[in-house]
Structure formats: structure tokens, C-alpha cells
Amino acid sequence: MNLSGQNFIAGNESALGQNSFHAVAAATGEILPTEFHMATPAEIHDATEQAAVARPLGLEDRAALLEAIAEEIEALGDELLDRAHIESALPLPRLTGERGRTCGQLRLFATSLRSGLGQEVITDAALPDRQPVPRPEIRRVLVPIGPVAVFGASNFPLAFSVAGGDTASALASGCPVIVKAHPLHPGTSELVARAIYRAIARVGVDARIFSMVHGAAETGATLAESPDLRAIAFTGSLKAGMALVKTSQNRPTPIPVFAEMGSINPVFLLPNALAARGEALAAGYAESLTMGVGQFCTNPGVIIGIASPALDEFTKAVTMKLNAVNLAPMLSGAIKSNFEAGVETLLASAGPELTSGSGCRFFRVTATEFAKHHALREECFGPAGLLVECQSEEELLEVAEIFEGQLTVTIQLDAADADLARRLRPIATGFAGRVVYNGFPTGVEVGHAMQHGGPFPASSDSRFTSVGTQAIYRFLRPVAIQNEPSYL
Amino acid sequence: MNLSGQNFIAGNESALGQNSFHAVAAATGEILPTEFHMATPAEIHDATEQAAVARPLGLEDRAALLEAIAEEIEALGDELLDRAHIESALPLPRLTGERGRTCGQLRLFATSLRSGLGQEVITDAALPDRQPVPRPEIRRVLVPIGPVAVFGASNFPLAFSVAGGDTASALASGCPVIVKAHPLHPGTSELVARAIYRAIARVGVDARIFSMVHGAAETGATLAESPDLRAIAFTGSLKAGMALVKTSQNRPTPIPVFAEMGSINPVFLLPNALAARGEALAAGYAESLTMGVGQFCTNPGVIIGIASPALDEFTKAVTMKLNAVNLAPMLSGAIKSNFEAGVETLLASAGPELTSGSGCRFFRVTATEFAKHHALREECFGPAGLLVECQSEEELLEVAEIFEGQLTVTIQLDAADADLARRLRPIATGFAGRVVYNGFPTGVEVGHAMQHGGPFPASSDSRFTSVGTQAIYRFLRPVAIQNEPSYL
Question: What is the number of other CB atoms lying within 10 angstroms of the CB of residue A31?
């Protein structure tokens, strides 16, 4: 594996700064050899300046580029998966799946571009005889907003990273992209940046449409402040996301930020479903909660049921399943420490825990306690679940009213639960971006109908999604063309 | 005319506060009799709290309500026009036209709702046999974002006010509305609020969907901070708009703000068009510049041409036309003072003026001077125009590169100008929300294709419009419904 540790600036490699860092093997803590150079403000501004003057890509070039990137990523073969595995501790089968998703979404944007995605035109025809004045023809088209900064996420080294959904949707929209690589997987990021460089060369488009910089939070802030930047896409914590929102609002020219900032993704167990299939629900919940060591934005951190023998059985079954889970290491020591701090909060407000030994954590509180402690409704990023026990259907609906904005809400129901579900539905729809029936929220489909983003604090703008083809609309703005002469 | 001067809170009238103000006759400065009560924080929070729990309106109720509001406004007859005329000094024919536009856009939203506006659904069908896991059906629908605050504009007492485009689009989306009435036309606002109350009663929908409060900037800030508010729509100055953006970002739950903040709307005169029809262009420009005493967001404050005898002729013709204009009074003393301060700035950087006597102001500067002084590129709200004289086509393109975000840009051209226009077009499209060919930017069509909003500082979010049917999308957010059982 031959890594340069440099920044990828508009077609070149660059290492002008004095500051550097090393990647760490997530499973062992071993410091890996390559020295990664943090980008300097000059390099970052160079990247955005060059992006702003890059030659715009036509539609077919965009589609061809997205496909070429997918091919070049696949051509990296096991080298990419091995490096991602070392940097993230995520198992190879998961990373293989994530690579499939990454290349799949690049190709989905290519196919969708060829079918008209993001090219919708609305025309009000001319009315030359209208009184008192004629109406000119007005044609509303969509144009790229300009250079987009993409902040890679810690938990998806491929699918929400250098060539992830944000980059794919921004390139599809015709916007140049400057990626801030996540410092937890700089080597994986470099390999993917090289793949993008190769794809750009193959398709023969302007190399200034893509850059990737290494660094920490200050690097990100410098990027967010770059005068030529026109939008930001981010996936990560509430704190880091809101820092970017503030930075963007304090620019001389404020720019839109789409920050997907996580969620506790409540799951409601309606009583008839619970009585009929508690065992299967327990297995499904435990699997969803521990998948990827619980390191998903859509991790179902809270589950709500009504006190009953079936709920007791469910609790026991979940606890047993969780005790038997063989957890992989977390993505980093810092993420593990944050998780442990979150567990301390749960212990203080909801403890004692029901689980023991496996590293998965599971707690049970009354609805009254849950309502009382805001800390119980904050994301604890990792494999920790909280069961909220209600005394009645009314109390379950009251609990539903408590939630702030969420990426997802899940309702487990049977036909006999329909009346309660009909009362729960408007409350659930009111706080979430996705409503899942009889499933679990992990496993976000990449399609045309997906909404990944929800009311604050799940995301900074509930009107957009960061997953699926509709994510392109974050980076397009309408222009009305009035009375354009035919000779143009 | 029987005005109560009260606030309209969720179906009731209310005057709990101690602070009040009087409307002023714009033409004479006379203080009008009714005492208008500024809303207290308690009244404002009551309005938003009640809005948040109002029964949602079905589509047909929304359409019927919008139509009923139009009818009730028309039923106010001359009383409304007379009051608006006294409060704004705008001539009756203009106000008659503005009432037509106001009722027209209410009805356009009703018709469009019945044709599916804002109800777009995207479905990814279930794939039960997909490997390795089945795909559930996912259906993406749009839901109302929640209570919307609408800030009435000074310059359109009807069309951008209590029942203007923002209110029409918000009600069409299914969102409750709380209007902050503009203090320059509180009586007009009360009449329209009464019309809305009557329409709500006639259609029989929940009265909590509409409130209107009186007050000053602090009233607006209190409204913007109301916990139950979910979005803000504003038309006015850069300063007031950005204050609302900051307030909304500092809320515990930040909310989206669409602020349309004005523009200088450059007009480019390409040389062949100028040579062929300079006289007509001068007449058109002078008319557009002085329409409504120049008090339009789309007022063409800057016009750019290439030095030539034709440009000299054009300058002379515009000056003569402007000297002959009989200006109506401005909307208020404060707006007049601001205009005069803006003219002082122009005199300092671009003076001396070419016009004399009529109150219209016209200046001419070199491109070099224009590039040097940022003050020349700031909006001067009123009938003041600045001609920028370039030495060459290249310099005209350089001037085009200088502009910050604009609501509109206009290109006057003939077929022989096509080459230059093709070079200008991408620059113009890059900074504006609407590109007008061979017309003038005033007279914003209300249709499906209109874009009124542009890159900052023209508006706070270039991805949305505040005029036309697409304005509804500011207030809708997508929700993905996954695997919903048929029995629900």
C-alpha cells in the first residue's frame, strides 16, 4: 500500500503545511506509518478558488464521471477494504456491503441524471394577447449552486465519505466538491481520492472540480469560511454540525448547510404486535441495536411499550440476546470514550442496567422518569438501548409527544393495533423524517423515495435529504429565464 | 371605517398590552385616529401555541379557504383601497392592480392545490424477492412544516402583506400563519385580517390557523423566537432580514427563514440593441425605474453600457424622461430619509447627478469607479439610477463579474449581440434568480415558473422563491413512509 499522505488539490497533490497526523488501527490502537499532512488555509482556499472557476460539466460528463468513479473504486479491490478495515475496525463483510452501496449510489445518480433528475423545467408560456400587458415566456430551470464542501462521517468510511452520497449528489448536480476527509480513515480517503482523480482523467473533465483536504476541526472551519464555497454537506454530531451552521451563518456571504446530526430513533411496540410476536421483535431489536456496534445515525436507541407480561418477556429476551452479542471494537478510542460517558448518563438517570458483560447496554425506565430527564433523550452513539415502560395507551401517546426531531420513528403493530396506530401516526410524522412500520430503522435504502434527515436536531434543514436521489436538490437553485430570444 | 386597532389572535381580538401606535397618512404626515395595540409576548406566544395545535386542513378546505379569502377581500370594496391609499400614498390604480394580483394569487394556489401542487409522491415499490434482503415499499410524501410567521412588506400593502403571497403559499401548504403586520399600513392590515376571519368562519375551519399581530421590530423578534414557530417568511431590507436569520439561528430549535432582501437588478445594454432602439430603451428604463416611486425589490438601480454616441443619446433621453416624471410621495418619511441618505452616497461616489428637480435621480460613472466603490452596488430604495459606462465588451463582462447575488438581471440585445450575450449569460445566471431578456425587471409575474429570490444578499436561501406557486415548497418537508400496512 503506497500512500503519500498529501492533500488532493484541484488535480495536484500538495503538502505545504507543518502539521501532520497518523492514522490509528481502530482495533489495536497501533499508530500506522504514513504521515498525513493537514491542509493549510492557503491550500484550502486554493481548492475552493479553483473549484469556482472549473469548467462546468455537461450532463453526460457527469454521468460518465460518476460511473468511472464507481469503477475505479471497485478496481482498488481488497486494498481498499483492508485499509478501511484497519482504520475503522468494521468487519470486511460490512465494508464489502458498504462498497457495494457506495458504487451503487454513484451509478444510481448516473442513471437518474440520464432520466432527467435535477433537470426539471417549468414553463409559463407567453401570452402575447393578454390585457393590460402581454405575458412573456418564463422558463424555470435548475442550476448548480456552486462549490460544495463535503464532510466525511466517522461511521461510514466509504458510503458517507470521500465518494459517498454527498459527493455523488453534488457532482451529479454539477457542483464541484471539496471533501474534508475524516481523520479516522485518512488512508481509505486517500485511496478513494486517487480513484476519483483517475476517473476524472479517464473521462477528461476539468480536474478542478474535485479536491480533498486532511485535517481537524479548524481545517473544517477554514473550509467552511472559504469565500468561494456555496454549500456544505455534513454527517456527524450535533455539536460539530451546529458549529458548521454557525460558521456558515457568520460568513460575509452565508451559505446553506445540510447537517445530518443523528437521532435516538424511537421504536413503538404496540400491544397486540408485542403479544403476538414478542420473541421475534426482541431478536430484531437486538440485531438492529448492535449492528455496526450501534454506530449508525438510525440506531434505535429508545423502545417504548406498555407494561404487560409480554413486555417483561420482551425485556428478558432482548437482554439475553444482547448479553450473547460478540461486539467488534468501536471506530476509535474517542468514540468509545464518548459512548462510555453516554452510558454513565444512562446509569445515573435510568440505571441499573439489565445487561452484563458483552459491552451492549440495556436499560428500563418508566415513562415518568423518561419525561423527567432530558439526558435520556440525547443520542448515546453506540450499542445502548433504553426501554420506556408506559402504563397505558394514553401514556404511550404522551411519551410520543415528548420527542424532538428524529431521523426515524418505528411503529410495530398488528391489525388489532390500528386504532392506536392511527392516533400515534400524526405525532410520529410530526417529529420524524421517516416512519417505519414493522421493521427497524437501520438499513437505509438508497432510492428515489428515501428521506434521511428530519426536524431539528436530527438535521439542520428538514426540507432536504442526504440519502437517495432527492439529495441532489440541496445543491440546485432555480433560475427563471424570461423571454429568452430563440437565437440564443 | 370602523377599526378596532386590536391584534387578531387565533379567532379572537386582543389588546392586552400598554404600547400602541397610530397610522400615518403617507402623503401628508397626518396622524390617523385609530390607536393600534402592539402585541405583548403573551399574545404572540398564545398565537403560535394555538397555531401548533390547530386541526390540520384537508386539501379541499385549504383551496376553499384561499378562494373565500379572495372573495372577502374583494367584498371590502373601495374601503380597502382607500385605506391602503391613505397609508401608503400609492395611487388607486396601482392598488386596484395590486388587489387583483393578491386575489389572483390566492385563487392560483387554490386551483393549483386541486391540480396536485405540493402533493407530489415518490414511491419505491417493494421488492420482496431482492437478495440479500427484501426491499420494503417506501413512499415519500410532503407534510406541512408547522406554524409560519409572515412579515408584511412596506411596499406592497396587499400583495406582500397579510393575505399576500407568503400567507397564500403557507396556508396552501397546510401550515398555520401568524402575520406580523407592517406598521406602515396597520389599518389596511386589520381590514384584510377581518376578511380572513370571515373566510375562516364561512369555510368552517379551525380559527387557530390564523393570527395577526401589530408591533415594531421587537414584536417581530418575539414572534421569531416563539417556540412553536417552524418557519419564517420575510420581505424587506437586508438589515431586518439578517436580524431575523440570526434570531432564528439562535433559537434552541433553529428554523428556516426565507428572507427576500432586495437587490440593485443590473440591466445590460448590449451595443447593437442600444444603437437600434436607444430611444425606446430609455423610455422603458425610465418607466421601470420610477414605477411605484422606485419602491420595488426589482427596481433596476444600475444600467451598464459601452461608451458610444448611442450611450450618450440614451443618457440624455433617460435624463429628460426622469426630469419630466411627476413623482407620487414615498411610502413613509423614514423611507424617504433612507432614500435621501442613499442619494448622498451616490453623490459622494458617483456625483454630480444628471437629473434635476423631479425627485428622480440619475448618475453616470465609469466602470473603474463602479468597481472601486462598494457603496455604488448597495440598494438605494427609491427612484435612483446609476449608469455604468464601460470602454469595451471585455470591460462590460468584467463589470458583470463584480455583482453579488441579485433578484434579477436584465439583458437588452439584438441578434447581432448574440456572441456577447452568450458570454454574459453564464455570469448573469451565476448571480441572479431571474434573467430577463429584452424587458425590464419590474412587474413580477405570478405563475408556476417564477423565481423571486436569488443568491445572497438578494435572499437568504437561493433554493426557494417567494413569488409563484413554487413558493409552497418553503413550507413542506418530505417524510418517507416505509412499509405502511394496508389496514392503516
Answer: 10
For residue A287, the chain B residues in CB contact (below 8 A) are none
Strands (E), B371-451: 384-390, 406-412, 432-437
pLDDT of residue B262: 82
Amino acid at A8: F
Give mean pLDDT in consecutive 10-residue pieces for chain A, a chain of 488 residues. Answer: 93 97 96 97 98 97 98 98 98 97 98 98 97 95 98 96 98 98 98 98 98 96 98 96 96 97 96 98 98 96 98 98 96 95 94 92 97 95 97 98 98 98 98 98 96 98 98 98 97
Nearest Cα of chain B lies from the Cα of A301 at a distance, in angstroms, of: 19
Asked if A426 and A433 touch (Cβ cutoff 8 Å), the reply is: no
User: Which H or E run contains A167?
Assistant: helix A165-173
Residue B479 makes CB contacts below 8 A (sequence gap 6+) with A429, A432, A433, A434, A435, A451, B140, B141, B142, B143
Residue B307 CB neighbour total at 10 angstroms: 15
State the cell numbers at B9: 389572535
- Closest partner residue to A434 (CB to CB) among B450, B457, B482 is B482
Q: What number is the average pLDDT over the span B317-337?
A: 96
How many CB atoms within 10 Å of residue B34?
18
Residues 6+ apart with CB under 8 A from A122: A139, A140, B448, B449, B470
The three grid cell numbers given for residue A215, joined into one nine-digit string: 485535517
Judged by DSSP in three states, A115 sits in coil
User: Is-contact B379 B407, C-beta < 8 A?
Assistant: no
Contact A255, A246 (CB under 8 A): no
Instruction: Give tens-digit pLDDT for B328-378.
Output: 999 999 999 999 999 999 999 998 999 998 999 999 999 999 999 999 999
B13 classed as catalytic: no
**CA–CA–CA angle A333, A337, A340 (5° rounding):** 140
CB A231 within 8 A of CB A148: yes
- The nearest alpha carbon in chain A to B253 belongs to A456
Answer yes or no: are the C-beta atoms of B148 and B257 closer than 8 Å.
no
Preceding amide of A352 cis, omega within 30: yes
Q: Would the CB atoms of A135 and B476 count as touching at under 8 Å?
A: no
Query: 3-class DSSP state for residue B400?
Result: helix
Determine the pLDDT at residue B459.
98
For the record, the C-alpha cell of B380 comes out as 438605494
Beta-strand relationship, A31-37 and A20-24: antiparallel
Query: What sign results for the dihedral spanned by CA atoms A70, A75, A77, A79?
Result: negative
DSSP SS3 for B33? strand
Residue B1 has pLDDT above 90, yes or no: no
Cell output for A191: 485511496
Instruction: Specify the amino acid at residue B106.
Output: L
What is the predicted pLDDT for the residue at A1? 64
Nearest CB partner across the interface for B485, out of A437, A443, A470: A437
* Helix (H) / strand (E) containing A363: strand A361-366
* ipTM value > 0.90: yes
Q: Are B349 and B355 in contact (CB under 8 A)?
A: no
pLDDT for B49-66, tens place per residue?
999 999 999 999 999 999
Q: Which residue out of B133, B140, B298 would a mutagenesis test of the A interface target, given it has the greatest number of A Cβ atoms within 10 Å?
A: B140
What does the radius of gyration of chain B's CA atoms come to, in whole angstroms?
Answer: 24
Mutation choice for A interface testing from B137, B406, B424, B463 by most A CBs within 10 A: B463
Averaged over B179-184, what is the pLDDT?
Answer: 98
Pick from A383, A357, A377, A371: which is nearest to A285 by CA?
A383
Q: pTM for this one?
A: 0.97
Q: What residues does A387 pair with on adjacent strands? A: A303, A364
Amino acid at residue number B37: H
Write out chain B residues lying below 8 Å of A485, CB-based.
413, 415, 418, 437-438
